[in-house]
Structure formats: C-alpha cells, structure tokens
Specification:
single chain; about 400 residues; alpha/beta; 5-stranded parallel beta sheet; binds S-adenosyl-L-homocysteine; binds thymidine-5'-phosphate
C-alpha cells in the first residue's frame, strides 16, 4: 500500500481480518446487510507512521448515529476542564479565539466563551447536544472545502485544538493545510491522541479500529509537521484513553524545544517505537495475547460460569471480532450510553444492556472492555464480588 501522506510504499505487517464499523451498533431488528472491511496495519519507515492499509469512508463512521459522547465519562469532563485551564494560562490571552476540531458534545469548548470559540463536529447526534449546551458548533467536517463554504476567517484562531480526532482524519495533508489557513501568525496547535508507545507497552491492540487510521508517535508528528513548516516544541504523556500523547506545535523553525520532548524522543528510540522491528515485536505479542485470552475464557466456561462485558467501547469491537468472541460466549455488555442500550454490538451481535441492571445481575466474571475507565467504573461498582478481567496481561 501507499502512505496517505508521502504517497510512497508502506510495509503491511498485521491483519485483524474482517471488521465491522467499531461504533456501528445495530438495532435488534436490523435488516440492512452489515458492512465489513479488512482491518490491516502498515508502517511507513520514512515518516515513522503507523497506519491502517484501508479505512471506511468518514461519512460511514461520523453521522447522525454516532454514539460516542465525551461527557459519558466524569473523568473526561474533568480532564477537558483542566486542559482548558492549562491552555488559557500558558498559551492564550483574554480575547484569543479558539477552534476545536471534533468538538463532539461540547465538553471541551464549554470551558470557553461562546463568542471566542468554534467547533467543527460532523456527527449530528453529538453536535445537537453541543448546540443544546450553547456551544458554538458547526455540523461539518473540518476541511479546506468546508472552510470556504462556511466563510471561516483566515489566520484568525490563536489556538487550534483537537482530542482523539486527528488520528481519525484520512487526509492529513488537507488537515494540516486547513489548520495553516485558520491559525493566527503566532498561534498554537495542540492535540492529544492515543499514543503508539503506550499501545506497544500494554499490547492494547484494541486501540486499532476503523476510526484510528493513524497511531501517532512523537517522531511521526515531528516529521509530518516539518513538511508543512511547523515545529513540535513540546509533548506530554497523558493517562487518558489508556495512554495518549499531547503535542504542541508552532509555526516556523522554532529552536527552543522542551527538555521533556528530548527525553521522550530518546525513550521512543530505546523501545524501537519508530522502527519496523518494533512493529514485528508488537505483531508477535498481539498473537500471543489473543491465545492467552481465549484460553482464559475457555477456562471460565469450563467451570460452567457465565460471562458478561462492561463498557461497549469502540475498542471492544476489535477484540471481539479478532478473537471471534460472540453472543454464545459473552451474554451481554452493560453500558451507560442511551444510543447503545437495546442494540447489538457490531459484528458479534452481543446485546447491550443498561448498566443499571448490572447491580442485580449475578455474573462473577466480567470482561472490562472500558479498561481505560477502570477507576471510575470500579468506584461505581465496588460492592460486587466480581472477577474483573481484560485482554491486557
Ligand atoms: N474530542 C472528543 C471527541 C473524540 S471522538 C473527545 O476527545 O472526547 C472524535 C470526534 O471527531 C467525533 O465526534 C467525530 O464526529 C469527529 N470528527 C471526525 N472526523 C472529523 C473531521 N474531519 N473534522 C471534525 N470532526 C471530526
Ligand atoms: P471509550 O473507552 O471510547 O471512552 O468508551 C467508553 C464506553 O464505556 C462508552 O460506551 C460508555 C461506557 N462507560 C460505562 O458504561 N460506564 C462508565 O462508567 C464509563 C466511564 C463508560
């Protein structure tokens, strides 16, 4: 395959097989044939860029049915409040203008004044919630075409921000050129995304699904943005979404970079995050992880115990479909999201139940698919005598 950015060849190295849309929860009476694609991963050594070899069209994923709401996690609400506070203090003035890409239900932008902020959010389901919350949200994809269509002011925004969305955008060239158009002369780009280094460390291969077209590392971001005249000046590891990295970039060739950034780059080198060797090591560990999980499940079933899941995450779609764990193995998955409850999980068709029913259920073994929200969930469900497990270690 050809890299989406430099258009030269990439090495394909890992195939997860047939996959549905990770957030494509189905009504129980669904009639339309379910969509599947081949989930396969490749690496571009020149840009140190980990990417899917193909991806479903963004319109297939981000539409009026999109069921992921940022505000479904109290910790994430707190995280974005703290992030906004930190950004205001460090990078903004009183009347600075902020543009967010993938603003979802407005959780981040709620921390800014409406007249100084704007969000681009293509999924109508979440956009409508943002509107209700009086957030300035445009129901559009952030791209050059829509910038023109909406008559967005050029060089106007002092901050372009995104969380868990840059890796969703197939056309990175258009993305960066569009940012270049809207960002003010001394503006800052800040974004945070699931981090390749954390995925390698945890073998959290469930981070790989249709929406995550790229899994970025510091080296990849540094190289990609240099092509467009931006400098990565700092990066910060985050605990959110099971291990993310925040990137901070400025225009031009900035010589002053943080000490932390230099340290993080050295860590990436040490753990082979940016070499094809690292990819092959990961592949091997993913295969071992699958075998170990299936053995664990077989053992539970042999004791005549029933299993349920907790948190119908997009990540769970990869685990369930890759390991072929269906509704005969997992009875149901409990979740808080209104748009998911009463539906079936993508591909494996496991029923999604209201988490309120979990308290009175008798499951002893619970697969915690929302392992990145472990603390928040276990605090809520602490009174139950349960053996929580995941595919991680
Ligand atoms: N930023 C939020 C939401 C992440 S989910 C958070 O971190 O919780 C990704 C969001 O980005 C979705 O709401 C999706 O609809 C939106 N999105 C996807 N592609 C986009 C694009 N090209 N432009 C703007 N938003 C996009
Ligand atoms: P995420 O891992 O992509 O953030 O998705 C989290 C999913 O887990 C989402 O469907 C909501 C669900 N969830 C719960 O069911 N209970 C909880 O306490 C939390 C935090 C999330």
């Amino acid at each position: 395959m050809k890299c989406r950015i430099d258009k030269k060849s990439c090495k394909v190295f890992l195939n997860f097989g047939k996959m549905p849309i990770a957030n494509g929860f189905l009504r129980k009476d669904f009639k339309k044939k379910e969509y599947f694609f081949n989930l396969e991963v490749a690496f571009n050594e020149r840009l140190s860029l980990f990417q899917l070899s193909r991806n479903p069209s963004p319109q297939k994923m981000f539409n009026k049915h999109y069921p992921f709401y940022t505000s479904s996690s109290k910790n994430m609400i707190k995280h974005f409040k703290n992030t906004a506070k930190w950004i205001k203090k460090k990078y903004l003035k009183k009347k600075s203008n902020v543009l967010e890409i993938g603003s979802n239900d407005g959780t981040f932008l709620k921390n800014f004044k409406k007249e100084f902020s704007l969000g681009f959010e293509p999924s109508k389901s979440v956009h409508l919630i943002a509107k209700k919350r009086k957030v300035n949200s445009f129901n559009f994809f952030f791209n050059k075409k829509n910038l023109k269509l909406l008559n967005i002011k050029h060089k106007f925004y002092d901050l372009v921000y995104g969380a868990n969305v840059f890796c969703h955008i197939p056309n990175q060239v258009d993305l960066i050129k569009t940012i270049d158009k809207v960002l003010s002369k001394n503006g800052t780009i800040i974004f945070e995304e699931p981090y390749l280094g954390s995925m390698y460390k945890k073998i959290s291969y469930d981070q790989i699904y249709d929406e995550h077209i790229y899994m970025f590392s510091i080296a990849s971001i540094e190289k990609i943005y240099k092509l467009f005249g931006f400098t990565l000046i700092d990066a910060a590891p985050l605990k959110t979404h099971g291990g993310s990295m925040r990137y901070i970039l400025k225009r031009g060739n900035v010589l002053k970079k943080s000490k932390r950034l230099k340290n993080l780059i050295n860590i990436e080198k040490k753990y082979k995050v940016n070499s094809f060797k690292g990819c092959l090591m990961f592949k091997r560990k993913v295969e071992l992880s699958k075998n170990k999980l299936l053995k664990k499940i077989k053992h539970i079933i042999s004791k005549k115990e029933r299993i349920c899941g907790y948190g119908a995450t997009s990540k769970s779609t990869t685990i369930l479909n890759y390991c072929n764990i269906d509704n005969k193995i997992i009875d149901c998955i409990f979740d808080t999201t209104k748009d998911k409850i009463g539906k079936l999980s993508p591909g494996m068709h496991i029923p999604i139940e209201d988490y309120k029913k979990f308290k009175n259920s008798t499951y002893k073994y619970v697969f915690l698919f929302a392992w990145n929200h472990r603390k928040e969930i276990l605090k809520k469900e602490k009174n139950k005598n349960i053996k929580w497990f995941t595919h991680l270690n």
